[in-house]
C-alpha cells in the first residue's frame, strides 16, 4: 500500500476490528466504538515521537508512571502482571509501554528456550528481573545479526507494518517511537483507556501477518507467538528506551546516522510524512 494511497485504510479498520478481540473476549463490547482521544493526550499522527506541546511548558515529555509503585488497572480487562504462557507482561491504561515484536524465524525458539534455562527464567519471572534483562540483551544481539528471512526488509511489507502502527494512533494509543528493523519491530506507545497492550499487539500482528503472507505468497507463522514489553517507569527510563529505539539501525550497522533510517521515528520521512 503506497504511503500516499489512503483508500485502503477503511479496509484496515474493518479487518483490524474483526481480529483484534480474542475469542475469550467476544462477549465484551467492541473496543473504542466512538474513538475520541482524551483532550489531555493529543494524537501525534505523522509527528510520532514529537514531544507534546504545552503552552506553559514547551516540549513537555509525556509523564510516565511513578517509579515507586506499579499502576493499578481500573477494570478487569487490564490484568496488571500476567503471563500468556511465554513471557510475563504488565497491562494498565495510561502507562507508556516499550514493545518489541519479532518475526517467527528471527531467533529460533530452541535458542530462546536454552537461554531461559541457562538464566533460570520461569513463566512467573518478572520482566524487571535481572535475568530477563540478560535474556533481552542476548536476543537483541542475535536478532541484530539479521538471522532468518528478514521479511521486513521488503519495503512493501515495511509499509504495511508502518501503516498499521499509525492507523489507531491517537485513538487506542499514542505512538511515541517506532522502528521497523529487518526481522523485528520496536514500538513505544502510551496506552489509553480502551484497549489493553495485548489486544493492541494482537491487532497489529494479526493484520500485518495476513497482509505480509499474501504479499509473499506464503502461509504459516509470520510473527513469534508472544512479544516483549516493559512499562516505562520514569523520565530516565523513557529517554534510555527512546534512544535505543532510534539508534538500533545504527547499532546494527544498517545506517551511519539515525535520520538515515526511513523506517522509524528518527528518520527523515517521519512516518511517511
Outline the structure in words.
The chain is of the alpha+beta class and 273 residues long. It has one domain: 2-Layer Sandwich (Alpha-Beta Plaits). The protein has six helices and six strands, in the order H-E-E-E-H-H-H-E-E-H-E-H. The protein has helices spanning 9-19, 109-118, 130-144, 155-167, 197-216, 235-251; strands spanning 80-83, 88-91, 96-102, 173-180, 184-191, 228-231. The strands form two sheets. The protein has a four-stranded antiparallel β-sheet. Strand 1 and strand 2 (88-91) form a beta hairpin. The chain is globular. Residues 1-70 and 78-89 have low confidence and may be disordered.
What are its keywords?
two-stranded antiparallel sheet, 273 residues, 4-stranded antiparallel sheet, alpha+beta, 13% strand, Alpha-Beta Plaits, single chain
- Beta-strand proportion: 5-15%
Strand order of the largest sheet: 4-5-3-6
Biggest sheet details = 4 strands, antiparallel
- End-to-end span in angstroms? 15 Å
As a percent range, the share of helical residues equals 25-40%
At the fold tier of CATH, the topology name is: Alpha-Beta Plaits
Q: What would you report as the Rg, rounded to the nearest angstrom?
A: 18 Å
Whole-number mean pLDDT: 74
Amino acid at each position: 500500500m503506497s504511503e500516499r494511497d489512503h483508500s485502503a485504510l477503511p479496509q484496515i479498520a474493518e479487518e483490524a476490528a474483526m481480529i483484534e478481540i480474542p475469542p475469550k473476549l467476544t462477549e465484551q463490547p467492541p473496543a473504542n466504538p466512538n474513538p475520541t482521544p482524551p483532550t489531555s493526550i493529543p494524537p501525534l499522527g505523522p509527528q510520532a515521537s514529537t514531544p507534546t506541546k504545552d503552552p506553559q511548558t514547551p516540549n513537555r515529555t509525556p509523564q510516565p508512571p511513578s517509579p515507586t509503585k506499579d499502576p493499578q488497572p481500573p477494570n478487569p480487562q487490564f490484568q496488571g502482571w500476567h503471563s500468556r504462557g511465554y513471557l510475563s507482561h504488565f497491562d494498565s491504561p495510561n502507562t507508556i509501554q516499550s514493545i518489541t515484536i519479532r518475526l517467527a524465524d528471527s531467533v529460533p525458539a530452541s535458542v530462546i528456550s536454552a537461554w531461559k534455562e541457562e538464566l533460570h527464567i520461569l513463566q512467573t519471572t518478572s520482566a524487571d528481573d535481572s535475568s530477563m534483562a540478560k535474556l533481552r540483551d542476548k536476543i537483541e544481539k542475535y536478532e541484530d545479526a539479521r538471522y532468518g528471512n528478514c521479511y521486513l526488509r521488503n519495503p512493501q511489507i515495511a509499509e504495511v507494518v508502518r501503516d498499521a502502527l499509525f492507523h489507531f494512533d491517537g485513538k487506542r494509543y499514542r505512538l511515541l517511537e517506532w522502528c521497523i528493523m529487518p526481522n523485528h519491530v520496536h514500538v513505544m506507545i502510551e496506552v489509553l483507556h480502551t484497549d489493553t497492550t495485548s489486544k493492541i499487539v494482537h491487532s497489529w500482528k494479526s493484520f500485518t501477518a495476513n497482509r505480509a503472507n499474501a504479499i509473499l505468497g506464503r502461509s504459516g507463522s509470520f510473527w513469534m507467538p508472544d512479544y516483549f514489553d516493559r512499562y516505562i517507569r520514569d523520565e530516565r527510563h523513557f529517554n534510555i528506551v527512546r534512544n535505543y529505539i532510534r539508534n538500533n539501525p545504527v547499532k546494527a550497522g544498517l545506517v551511519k546516522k539515525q535520520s538515515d533510517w526511513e523506517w522509524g521515528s528518527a528518520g527523515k520521512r517521519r512516518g511517511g510524512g
